[in-house]
Amino acid sequence: MATQKKSYAARLGVLAVALSLVTACLLGGTMAKYVTEVTGTGSATVAKWSFKANGGTESFDVALTDATQAGVAANKIAPGAKGSFDIDMSAADSEVGVDYTIAFSGTDNLPTGLKFYSDAAGNTVITEFDAVSTGTIAAAGTKKETIYWSWPTTGSDVNDTAAGTAADGAAKTFTIKVTGTQQKPTATPAP
């Protein structure tokens, strides 16, 4: 009988352990918990870029003429001529600031006595043609750079005469390159 009691006790013990495991599994799978899933979207709106020089996005023309120079054919220049031309730069439709550089090339095609100046009085001769002028335009802003020029009569008579003798009626051209680059963004300070 003692063996039978042990057998029942052992069976009851095993049954109790089995019921505990089954109950734990059932309760573990059926326990309630809060769950929330939120879905969002990301977006990026690109700032608009727009840069123009003298109204053009690819090219523009400038002619060196002096309408006040007496005794010279219309739309031609000779020693004693002077004038200026404007480069109107626009970032009016841009949503970013612009750093600009104005550069000249091919100026060796022009008469050797012809000089460019950054001031109307002719005190500051432009000698660095890779960066005739540089500056910044704010987003949605505009800026005008005026370049002055003159062909003084105090230059070399030999060179001036050679330029006039070689003149074949065709315009002597040089290139004006205006480059607009997005202004480098400044770092936003950490909050």
Output the structural class. Answer: alpha+beta
How many beta-strand elements?
Answer: 7
Percentage of residues in strands: 15-25%
Instruction: Kindly provide the name of the CATH class of the largest domain.
Output: Mainly Beta
Global morphology: rod-shaped
Query: Regarding quaternary structure, how should these chains be classified?
Result: single chain
Total number of helical segments?
2
Please tell me the overall pLDDT. Answer: 89
Radius of gyration of CA atoms, rounded to a whole number: 41 Å
The CATH architecture classification of the largest domain is Sandwich
Helix content: 10-25%
Q: Could you give a short account of the major beta sheet?
A: 4 strands, antiparallel
Overall description:
- The chain contains two helices and seven strands; from the N terminus they run αββββββαβ.
- It is an alpha+beta fold.
- The chain has two domains: 30 residues; 131 residues, Immunoglobulin-like (Sandwich), CATH 2.60.40.
- A four-stranded antiparallel beta sheet has the order 1-2-6-4, with no helix packed on it.
- The radius of gyration is 41 Å and the shape is rod-shaped.
- The longest helix is centred in the N-terminal third of the chain and has 29 residues.
Task: Give the tags.
191 residues, alpha+beta, Immunoglobulin-like, 2 domains, 4-stranded antiparallel β-sheet, 3-stranded antiparallel β-sheet, rod-shaped
Tell me briefly what this model is.
This protein has helices at 2-30, 157-166, and strands at residues 52-53, 82-90, 98-105, 115-117, 133-137, 142-150, 175-182.
Write the layout of secondary structure elements.
Blueprint: H1 2-30, E1 52-53, E2 82-90, E3 98-105, E4 115-117, E5 133-137, E6 142-150, H2 157-166, E7 175-182
Antiparallel strand pairs: 1-2, 2-6, 3-5, 3-7, 4-6
